[in-house]
Specification:
Elements (H helix, E strand, L loop, with lengths): L6 H20 L5 E5 L4 H4 L15 E5 L1 H18 L3 E2 L2 E2 L2 E2 L7 E2 L11 E5 H9 L9 H5 L3 H9 L1 E5 L4 H7 L5 H18 L2 H7 L3 H22 L10 H5 L5 H13 L3 H22 L10 E3 L2 E5 L3 H9 L4 H4 L8 H4 L3 H4 L2 H11 L8
Parallel strand pairs: 2-7
Antiparallel strand pairs: 1-2, 1-8, 3-4, 5-6, 9-10
Helix pairs in contact: 8-10, 8-14, 9-10, 9-13, 10-12, 10-13, 12-13
Length: 368
């Protein structure tokens, strides 16, 4: 294979040098949009030379109007199979079987090829990938059913041409949560911390160092999730979670503390470093200016010798700032599908995400 170039750049070249000229020549009547959005490490911008072994290569999603798609998509697919160049920038445009995990590039000396030009409509793509109805305004519960890892790929992917004039506005709408929903999600994330914050010491106090270590790791992840929310950045899935975290402005302050928490051999030291991390997050919360200032302090848990930030203070302060009645009627302190489940099979299934969110966030729910 040629020397690695980022997959997004390769797909951009593929569109402009191969796909678009063929469309202009053979189907000049088409209005279309073209992008590389959706799943993939390359879409996130985290691909490396290792990524080239599968699910990587010259790929484009081609959006047509519903009428053109219904009439021409099969002919267009076959046209590309027989007319696309056999390689672009030295990379094969043919993907061999099996196509599991996105397929694998394979050189081929003659047509037809199995290409990775996905021909679809805007409404079908967003419905299938995210469960988004592009013909209706998204409600708070719609937003809560969208996994952050998918929202991030839609935000980080590239649009090469938007002749239909719709892909870019949809991406702009999905760029970040509506304000009150953002407050709600931060409250729910503080709630997750609040539920576990005293247990580092409680498990350690009975000699359960393994349990205390596990809780330390769990609380690190909860803090990281909160850091993504505070930075208004969607978190990717687990493979790139730590990599993306390192790009956040707060990471240089938190990463050394996380390392010390993970390396601590006894619970009191672990709790000390965790308390420092809580103080960093408390100050970061106040810097957002979304609630009245909350004193960044650590104190004992109900008189017990366990040091906690009393995260419930942040939960209540954030919920008090919510004005949108639809957000107020969400299930108290539960949150989005990412805060409900970390099952890959659920997060990759828009229908399952929607069913779970609908079941939890009933209309008659209200914050106490």
């Amino acid at each position: 294979m040629p020397e690695f170039i980022p997959g997004l750049k390769l797909s951009e070249i593929f569109y402009h040098d191969a796909v678009q000229p063929l469309l202009a020549s053979a189907f000049p009547q088409f209005s279309h949009s073209a992008a590389h959005i959706g799943w993939g490490s390359d879409v996130l911008g985290f691909d490396t030379p290792m990524s080239m072994d599968h699910g990587w290569g010259p790929k484009v999603t081609l959006f047509l109007t519903p009428q053109d798609h219904a009439e021409y998509h099969q002919n267009l697919h076959e046209f590309f199979a027989n007319n696309l160049p056999l390689e672009v920038q030295g990379f094969p445009t043919h993907f061999g079987e099996p196509y599991a995990d996105g397929g694998r590039m394979e050189p081929k000396t003659a047509h037809p090829i199995h290409h990775m030009v996905t021909i679809t409509t805007i409404s079908a793509f967003f419905q299938d990938y995210l469960g988004l109805d592009t013909n209706a305004e998204s409600t708070p519960r719609d937003w809560l059913s969208f996994p952050q890892q998918k929202l991030r790929t839609l935000r980080s992917g590239w649009v090469f041409h938007d002749g239909l004039g719709l892909v870019t506005p949809i991406r702009q709408t999905l760029h970040w949560y509506p304000h009150d929903l953002w407050l709600y999600l931060m409250a729910c994330q503080w709630q997750r911390i609040d539920q576990d914050e005293p247990f580092i010491g409680r498990t350690g106090s009975v000699g359960d160092e393994l349990g205390s270590r596990l809780l330390g790791s769990r609380l690190i992840r909860e803090i990281m999730q909160l850091a993504f929310l505070m930075a208004r950045e969607y978190a990717p899935y687990t493979k790139w979670f730590g990599t993306a975290f390192q790009q956040l402005p707060i990471a240089p302050k938190l990463t050394p503390l996380f390392t010390q928490i993970l390396e601590s051999r006894e619970w009191k030291t672990r709790e000390e470093h965790l308390s420092e991390a809580y103080l960093v997050m408390s100050k970061a919360h106040n810097d957002l200016g979304v609630t009245p200032v909350i004193p960044p302090e650590i104190s004992n848990f109900h008189g017990r010798p366990f040091h906690v930030p009393h995260s419930g203070r942040f939960v209540n302060a954030l919920l008090d700032q919510i004005a949108d009645p639809q957000v107020k009627n969400l299930a108290p302190r539960v949150g989005s599908i990412n805060q409900i489940s970390d099952s890959t099979d659920i997060l990759e299934n828009p229908k399952a995400c929607r069913l779970i969110v609908e079941a939890i966030h009933q209309e008659d729910q209200s914050h106490p």
